[in-house]
Amino acid sequence: MKAEKFREHALMGSRWLVEHQNLDGSWIGLSDPKVDAFYKGSWALTMTGQLAAAHRSLNYARQHFLTADGDFLPRGHPWHSSVHYLYANAYFIIGSMAAGRYETAMPAVRFLLSQQDPDHGGFYSRRTEAGQRELSDTMSAGAAGVACLAAGRIDAARRVADHLAHIVDLQPAPDERFFTTIEADGALGTEMQSDEQAHWRIIETKTENQCWYAVGLPFAFLVRMTEATGEARYRDLAQWYFDFQLRCVDPWDGGSSGKAGWGCAMLYRITGETRYRDIAFHVANNIVSRQNADGSWVSSAQGYGAGEQAALTNADLDVTAEFTLWLTLISSNVLARDEG
């Protein structure tokens, strides 16, 4: 499949989102709206040219989720509270900046920066009050780094990149595994209290179906950091994260491989090296293979009866916006090289 086709599938996803949006920006058929269903929408809709829908989504988020201190509440899935808290905040910032909605972006940026560790520059995995310390992780750092670049906070983004380099330096056996967290005391997080915690915090090179975003999003951020600064050290660090993921088992086949697919598409645009385009296309093909005929990636909706609106979950809107976004970013970066 060619880049133009991936773009068409992205537009199918975008149209589905618009068709399921009320005029106030809420989602039709979503009975229990949480931050989880909205944080990716404005970036995805803006990138696919649905600008009015992007503004409506941000209107709703500002009215119902944006707090006085620039956070976004309430959240549904525990993943958004106890694993990667700032992931949602970062998407809201990027989408708000893309749409020119500074009245939402600016307070959100201030809150985000309050969650950056003053010593090592990483971003906390859970909401942390002033003066406290918490563990940090590469997913939160990568997402926050992209948001910092979108907001023009280059100094904060540099500290993120330095943090990601420091984590690499601390790895005891990078040919076998990657530990993704730094504890509150600054030590590499290598002790896990449960299998569930290990799933989020360790990437094993010889195990399938890992949380590829833990290396894929830092990789994509560092590619953007390279372009933002022109500094080769960030390109070298991006290559380290890419090479680690490349060593893993089926790293481009998971549901969270889209971040690295975006990074590869950007590298293809920059370098013209077809190996990056081929990986980006592989990721995009996997995403398309999961798409429903109506353009969505809904997996959990259940109809209440003939002719009645299907019940959507926050996760249904989340994944549809995300896959729409990755297909858009992959296709646009490849087309920028192939048609430029």
What does this protein structure show overall?
The strands form 2 sheets. The chain has a two-stranded antiparallel ribbon. A two-stranded antiparallel ribbon has the order 2-4. The protein contains 14 helices and 4 strands. The chain has one domain (3-299, 310-338): Glycosyltransferase, CATH 1.50.10.20. It is mainly alpha-helical. The model is unreliable at 301-308 (pLDDT under 50). The two termini are 19 Å apart.
Features:
mainly alpha, two-stranded antiparallel ribbon, 4 strands
Write the layout of secondary structure elements.
Elements: H1 3-19, H2 41-47, H3 51-64, H4 79-83, H5 86-99, H6 102-114, E1 136-137, H7 138-150, H8 154-170, E2 177-179, E3 181-182, H9 195-201, E4 202-204, H10 213-229, H11 232-247, H12 258-271, H13 274-289, H14 314-338
Antiparallel strand pairs: 1-3, 2-4
Helix pairs in contact: 1-14, 2-3, 2-5, 2-14, 3-5, 5-6, 5-7, 7-8, 7-10, 8-10, 10-11, 10-12, 12-13, 12-14, 13-14
Summarize the structure.
The protein is mainly alpha-helical and 340 residues long. It contains 14 helices and 4 strands.
- Uncertain runs: 301-308
Please tell me the total number of domains: 1
Name the CATH class: Mainly Alpha
Can you tell me the CATH topology?
Answer: Glycosyltransferase
By secondary-structure content and strand pairing, the structural class works out as: mainly alpha
- Strand tally is 4
Q: What is the rounded Rg?
A: 19 Å
Rounded mean pLDDT is 95
Helix content: 55-70%
- Count of alpha and pi helical runs: 14
What is the overall silhouette?
Answer: globular
Q: What fraction strand?
A: under 5%
Q: Give me the side-by-side strand order of the main sheet.
A: 1-3
For the largest beta-sheet, the strand count, sense and barrel status come to: 2 strands, antiparallel
